[in-house]
Amino acid sequence: xxxxxxxxxxxxxxxxxxxxxxxxxxxxxxxxxxxxxxxxxxxxxxxxxxxxxxxxxxxxxxxxxxxxxxxxxxxxxxxxxxxxxxxxxxxxxxxxxxxxxxxxxxxxxxxxxxxxxxxxxxxxxxxxxxxxxxxxxxxxxxxxxxxxxxxxxxxxxxxxxxxxxxxxxxxxxxxxxxxxxxxxxxxxxxxxxxxxxxxxxxxxxxxxxxxxxxxxxxxxxxxxxxxxxxxxxxxxxxxxxxxxxxxxxxxxxxxxxxxxxxxxxxxxxxx
Length: 271
Fold this sequence. Notes:
Elements: E1 17-20, E2 23-27, E3 40-44, E4 50-53, H1 60-68, E5 72-76, H2 82-85, H3 88-95, E6 99-102, E7 111-113, E8 118-119, E9 122-126, E10 135-138, E11 144-147, H4 165-178, E12 183-185, H5 194-216, H6 223-230, H7 239-255, E13 259-262, E14 265-268
Parallel strand pairs: 4-5, 5-6, 6-7, 11-12
Antiparallel strand pairs: 1-2, 2-3, 3-4, 8-9, 9-10, 10-11, 13-14
Helix pairs in contact: 1-3, 4-5
């Protein structure tokens, strides 16, 4: 069974919404099937100005709303996807604040950081899976900015080649071992009790793998037929993301020796 996803009414856009002491949420105006109500931009008060995590898309209204809140000292990116990072250049030009991302980011940034480094008072955790450059950030209070690795409203899309299902599961395990909370995600509401939610996300992925193996036990199957079996009644605008995540599952199972590809059809590997 999938996790019990969290829901909330549409929040106001481009407004600073206090969440925890010194931490506010600003929701970008980019709702959609992959972003829920919009991307969460997180604003952290600091002695030299605010730290901005994920400015969101390149939207002048979003940039203006961030600037209206006062000086910006630093811009942190959880990963390079456009709905999180495209607003960073405009915000950096307006503030001269440095843009910081993972060592492996494909973006042109001012500083690149690795796992465990502390920046803007936050400890970075490299959590690949949804994206190879994905970072979570741990606040001194224990709150964790989870980006798209863990979202309350939906499970994450994991699409090769940049997404990796084995890495995604390993990152879930790492976060579960860290006992952080609450989680402040890249989309959707705050996850107040992350431990059972992480376990449910992991179980959901393993159940998907079991369903793939069960389907392939019936004989060689094309990816399109697998998609239809595993995601019955899927809306057309979600077929692409589901197909990418299915490809990540198939790649992981093949790497582990459970399945093999012959031509365009997948089948169970011989024992």
